[in-house]
Amino acid sequence: MNRWIRTCAVLAVLMAALTVGASAMHIAEGYLPVGWAIGWGVVCVPFVAAGLISIRKKIEEAPRTKILLAMCGAFAFVLSALKLPSFNGSCSHPTGVGLGAILFGPTTMAVLGLIVLLFQALLLAHGGLTTLGANTFSMAVAGPIVSWVVYKLLRKVGAPAAVAVFAAAALGDLLTYVVTSVQLALATGDGMLKFLTIFAVTQIPLAIAEGLLTVVVFNVLEKYSKNELQALHVV
């Protein structure tokens, strides 16, 4: 266990070395018109409700997985708090939701992601309460769904676990920013290509780095938490 903790600490430091401070992350407080802010929040409700049911069911079936669940939340919190300046004052950051989606399914990450984004808005002034719904949909709903689907499809066709985990985490990260670009384009009336171009330069290498980091963490879990992964039907 001590070795596992040291490994995660080193990985966190390496990810932090890739990033520097920026003035904002996610969609900032007050940026969205009221209608869009409310609309995105309403869209997230069924996913969060399904996530609460899923979490209760998984905990009842395998109580020992509670530690892994908490770790997935912490992993998403730390990674999505790291940020790399892009252009025009914006920034990009990893999401960290791919790991939880692989282990617990996409709806579980809707709940964890909502909690992560809420704490970041309240404690770190990252994102905001008025944009909580939009940020939750992009990072905690859309991204995890893609990660989960990619992982399941690749494993079904016989791809190695490392390949499936890497692709799932990286593509889930990229899809988050595609959705964010759509949200910003709809709210501002600007073209989606503008926002995709702004984020692409920094987000693509970040997605690759997140994919590699997630593979390393998954390999550590396979070694030290194999029973829990088997209980979750991941391995």
From TrEMBL:
Q: Subunit arrangement?
A: Forms an energy-coupling factor (ECF) transporter complex composed of an ATP-binding protein (A component, CbiO), a transmembrane protein (T component, CbiQ) and 2 possible substrate-capture proteins (S components, CbiM and CbiN) of unknown stoichimetry.
Gene symbol? cbiM
Specify the pathway.
Cofactor biosynthesis; adenosylcobalamin biosynthesis
Give the signal sequence positions. Answer: 1-22
- Reply yes or no: does the keyword Signal apply: yes
Its membrane topology: Multi-pass membrane protein
Cellular localization per UniProt: Cell inner membrane; Cell membrane
Task: Give the protein's biological function.
Answer: Part of the energy-coupling factor (ECF) transporter complex CbiMNOQ involved in cobalt import.
**Molecular function (GO) terms listed?**
cobalt ion transmembrane transporter activity
The record's section on PANTHER family has: COBALT TRANSPORT PROTEIN CBIM, PTHR43627
* Family membership noted in the UniProt record: Belongs to the CbiM family.
Q: What is its main location?
A: membrane
Q: What name appears for this protein in its UniProt entry?
A: Cobalt transport protein CbiM
